Amino acid sequence: MTAIHVTSEIGKLKKVLLHRPGRELLNLTPDTLERLLFDDIPFLKVAQEEHDAFAKILRDNGVEVVYLEDLMAETLAANPGLREQFLKQFIDEAGIKTEKYKKIVYDFLNSYDDNKELILKTMEGINVNELDSKLRNIENSLVDLVSDESNFIADPMPNLYFTRDPFGSIGNGVSLNRMYSVTRNRETIYAEYIFDHHPEYKGQVDKYFDRYNPFHIEGGDILNLNDHVLAIGISQRTQADAIEMIAKNLFSHKDAKIDTILAFNIPNSRAFMHLDTVFTQIDKDKFTVHPGIMGPLQVFEITADPDNSNEVLVKEMNDKLENILARYLGIPKVELIMCAGGDKIAAEREQWNDGSNTLCIAPGVIVVYERNDVTNALLKEKGLTVLEMPSAELSRGRGGPRCMSMPLVREEVEW
Ligand SMILES: NC(=O)NCCC[C@H](N)C(=O)O
């Protein structure tokens, strides 16, 4: 079996990457919410219970669940020399500038013997008070003290439980993303180390995009329609330039099968931050859609330029969304199911709480937030198997079941 294998949004899910929300959520404060991309402070205990219920639904349905923190701890355990390199990179990317503070933080982190505890600490963030005893003997550094907006010498990474975004599985490879925001860009360091050094992934995973590229792209915008067509959102989080760049990389890669990208230009807003907040596939011929994107949506086809491998051909599709999808999926007809049936207020409310953000674990079988009862009732009426998970606290981070999961292996779909 290949380490990564994802050629659709709906093939039976065999293996998925999650992150159980941890103490990083305790380090959210009203003043940091906006910068750290949260709308409220979740109650950690309940968020963890909800997340465990999500993992249980997946396991009960035959999915192997692996956790980011475990893969990263295994990566360090398998490569004893890597701890130093990782810690130095983590410290640099946390924005710690002076040699003096770098050394203090390095020693503080390196004092964790247990690799998993160390990784969880890097995720949680480091408050300057935790270093107090070590700081007592040195002068404070003006540079680090004035450049810090909070008491954190390393900010927490509260968005880590949205494992969908730092990288995206595509066929047997990944897009290792450069993220839109400073706070989320730090998250991709874990995927970088896992793909480069974890015994199961090292040398097994092609990279079609790299976190050091100049343009930003996030996994919530990347949808595998089939083994040769991707849909990618042009959104608040993903730039058109990044899509052209990944298109050229995919089209010229000897092992990648992708020959067409459909770029979906969606409105740039907080509510619609990624394509998967407004549009997910739930069966071979069915998608959930937020009605709010239907008017402004533009779809572009991107293919290789046969005359120039440094360029791509871009064509706007002037057709109804359902016709475009049916054509590229090679099926007679596609049904779009509107969030909350299209009722304006209910659709806006439920989309805000990720009513369109479903995780499909087999054709016609989806995991959803139970709070979106109008949309869920409609999906059941349409014949879908709807597996509901609790969501009072997790939803405060503005992401749903698709955002909280990164498929590593799916079975092929018989079209
Ligand atoms: N794919 C997704 O839509 N992920 C949700 C990300 C939510 C997170 N608070 C963010 O703003 O990035």
Automatic annotation (TrEMBL):
Q: Any keyword Ubl conjugation? A: no
User: According to the UniProt entry, what is the EC number of this protein?
Assistant: 3.5.3.6
GO function terms (MF aspect):
arginine deiminase activity
Active site (record annotation): 403
Q: Does the keyword Cytoplasm apply?
A: yes
Q: Name one Pfam family in it.
A: ADI
Catalyses which reaction?
L-arginine + H2O = L-citrulline + NH4(+)
Q: Write out the entry's keywords from A to Z.
A: Arginine metabolism, Cytoplasm, Hydrolase
Q: Where in the cell is it found?
A: Cytoplasm
**What's its top-level EC category?**
hydrolase
Xref: InterPro entries: Arg_deiminase
Pathway(s) served:
Amino-acid degradation; L-arginine degradation via ADI pathway; carbamoyl phosphate from L-arginine: step 1/2
Family per record: Belongs to the arginine deiminase family.
UniProt-recorded name of the protein: Arginine deiminase
NCBIfam families documented for this protein: arcA, PRK01388.1
